[in-house]
Design goal:
Belongs to the AceK family. It is found in: Cytoplasm. This is Isocitrate dehydrogenase kinase/phosphatase. Its EC number is 2.7.11.5, 3.1.3.-. The radius of gyration is 26 Å and the shape is globular. With 607 residues, it is α+β, with helices and mostly antiparallel strands. The protein folds into 4 domains: 108 residues; 152 residues, no CATH class; 117 residues, Phosphorylase Kinase, domain 1, CATH 3.30.200; 160 residues, no CATH class. Helices cover 42% and strands 15% of the residues. A hairpin with a 5-residue loop joins strand 16 and strand 17. The chain starts with 8 loop residues before the first helix and ends in an 11-residue tail after the last helix.
Length: 607
């Protein structure tokens, strides 16, 4: 039971120190996000990517700082439970007028679980559910920007309004031809509205901060007319002369889902009230879970918190059992799922076959690399958890035996909470969005006879597979194991890589041509007769592993034969080493204005 009186002065001091720790974290997070504007204006692409990587580390550093301070100044871990109960209540009081209460609650949970020993840990001492509402929070300080601006154009002034929307962001870099770009946007918006009558409430709402990622800046908003709401995004890029240009006008939920995909790097956005941004973005993408939106905004810990709350809610309202995930079993990762839940759960095995020369620490390092890297829409983001407890009766026996056999160090089965319910506790776990494994997706097409729609499915899958590899190459990523089973197909038909234990930087790999045999014995030998270094890769040898099916081979060779040529890989490596930031788009090429209007002046821009 919580105390009736708050009579511990120490409790308030601990709560205040913890809040100071969070405020410092968000201040630094926001400052780094705001600097993205200057990096974009000065075309500091490497600095932008470096900042995106480094910002991911901010949260854990601030949690460590806060924990150290609380132990040093207050001996927090030695305080009795009634003091900790009061700490939480004081902290709630400090959240009432806070602009980021949901993030501050998550910070409290992170610090508290570091300090309190697991045997004393209880949900009374953390925020299992949010204690403070995030509805209608707004920054009322006189100089503060609102969450979004509303514009009220007429049919005659719509073009002027588009120009004003763009110039209101005050980018310190001239546009090559803003009038031209505004006219392109006007044409696209007019076509989208299809001559609809402008209703009394006709308006355009635009978030007041730009969304920065790599070489792009994005204006995000929606058009409201009567009962219709149309989301839109305007990507702003640098052209080949270093001037700004509007590259496209994206419309609708599907385009925004692709832009905010779980397979892309996080945005840099300067937000005083992040929950208001999330609420606005959810009005544009109602099917996208809130946890994925927080992730996309770089607030990954909040994303984890919301994911776990959604997961607990789902398990409470479902009855199916966790099972070994369908598909070919991996040599390094053990994968299971809950059929009714759209995610898979992955744990690192204790034992690997001889051909997998790796360690648990190295595999964790690969997953961290992917978390910090630009995923260019082709690598699934992962949520990483420790000490995850599941109800024992929700596990199929085959799955329990599989974990006991391959990952016994990761398994504990006990009534650790002492509540009479046995739990399965997984020590370390990765969670990813569920996709259809590409090999299964192709097999379904083969089973359908490889004709008509099945042939189209094969064509689309193989084309996307090659495009995925080329996008990864552009991001300086060599997948390592390129087998079909290591790629998945999303609900939008995108092919995404999800097996990271063998990935390397392109710049760390030696791409070689298979040497010509010197003797007939060498040519006929079933063994590799030439020297192969630990980082050597021979693209010519990919074919036998990937292209056994004639229908697959025909499509692959038509679209992606260059992937079997070491010169393709070596050329990409040399460009990256020379400092070039390759070009990958979060939208289709045919949506670009320079393609639509035959005005190919813009440089490509990384998503």
């Amino acid at each position: 039971m919580f105390p009736q009186r708050l009579d511990s002065p120490l409790a308030y001091d601990i709560a205040k120190a913890m809040m100071d720790g969070f405020n410092r974290h968000y201040r630094l997070f926001r400052t780094e996000s705001a600097r993205a504007k200057h990096r974009f204006e000065t075309a500091d692409w490497h600095g932008q990517q470096r900042a995106q990587r480094e910002r991911i580390e901010f949260y854990d550093l601030r949690v460590k700082e806060a924990t150290t301070r609380l132990e040093k100044e207050f001996k927090a871990g030695e305080q009795p439970m009634d003091v900790w109960q009061q700490v939480k209540l004081h902290y709630i009081g400090l959240l009432v007028d806070h602009h980021q209460p949901e993030l501050a609650e998550t910070f409290f949970n992170s610090v508290t679980t570091k300090i309190l020993h697991r045997t004393h840990f209880h949900n009374d001492f953390i925020f299992v559910r949010p204690a403070v509402s995030t509805e209608y929070i707004e920054n009322d300080e006189p100089a503060a920007l609102p969450t979004y601006r509303a514009y009220y154009p007429t049919s005659e002034t719509l073009g002027e309004t588009i120009t004003r929307i763009i110039t209101n962001f005050q980018l310190q870099k001239p546009f090559a031809d803003l009038e031209r770009d505004s006219n392109y946007v006007l044409q696209e918006m007019s076509a989208r509205m299809q001559g609809a009558k402008l209703r009394a409430n006709f308006q355009i709402q635009v978030l007041t901060s730009l969304f920065f990622r790599n070489k792009g800046a994005y204006i995000v908003g929606k058009i409201i007319n009567g009962f219709s709401e149309v989301p839109f995004v305007l990507p702003v890029l640098h052209d080949k002369d270093g001037k700004l240009t509007i590259d496209a006008c994206l419309f609708g939920e599907d385009d925004l889902q692709a832009l905010f995909s779980f397979a892309r790097a996080y945005f840099m956005v300067d937000m005083e009230v992040p929950s208001a941004y999330v609420q606005f973005l959810r009005s544009l993408m109602p099917r996208k879970p809130r946890n994925e939106i927080y992730n996309a905004l770089g607030l990954a810990k909040q994303g984890k918190t919301l994911f776990y709350r959604d997961f607990l809610y789902h398990t409470k309202h479902s009855s199916d059992k966790f099972r070994i995930a369908p598909g070919i079993k991996g040599m390094v990762m053990l994968v299971f799922d809950l059929p009714s839940f759209p995610y898979v759960f992955k744990l690192i095995k204790d034992y690997y076959p001889p051909q997998k020369d790796t360690t648990r620490e190295q595999i964790q390092g690969k997953y961290l690399l992917v978390k910090q890297h630009d995923r260019v829409g082709r690598m699934a983001d992962t949520l990483e958890y420790s000490e995850v407890a599941f109800a024992r009766d929700r596990f199929e026996e085959d799955l329990i035996e599989e974990i006991r056999k391959f990952a016994p160090s990761q398994l504990e089965i006990s009534d650790r909470d002492g509540d009479g319910h046995e739990e399965v506790i997984i020590k370390h776990l990765y969670i990813e969005r569920r996709m259809i494994p590409l090999n299964i997706y192709l097999q379904e097409a083969f089973d359908a006879g490889s004709q008509g729609p099945a042939a189209e499915q094969i064509e689309r899958a193989v084309l996307e597979y090659g495009n995925a590899i080329k996008d990864l190459v552009a991001a300086n990523i060599f997948p390592g194991d390129m087998l079909w089973k290591n790629f998945g197909v999303t609900r939008n038909g995108k092919v995404v890589f999800y097996d990271y234990d063998e990935i390397e930087y392109i710049t760390d790999v030696n791409f070689r041509k298979v040497p010509q045999a010197r003797t007939e014995e060498e040519e006929m030998s079933g063994e590799i007769w030439y020297h192969v270094g630990p980082k050597d890769v021979f693209p010519e040898t990919f074919g036998p592993f990937l292209l056994g099916n004639p229908a697959v081979r025909e499509v692959f060779m038509r679209h992606h034969a260059d992937l079997l040529d070491p010169a393709y890989w070596q050329s990409a490596k040399e460009r990256i080493q020379a400092g070039y930031v390759h070009d990958v788009f979060p939208y289709d090429r045919d949506k670009r204005f320079n393609v639509m209007h035959g005005n190919a002046t813009s440089s490509e821009a990384m998503s």
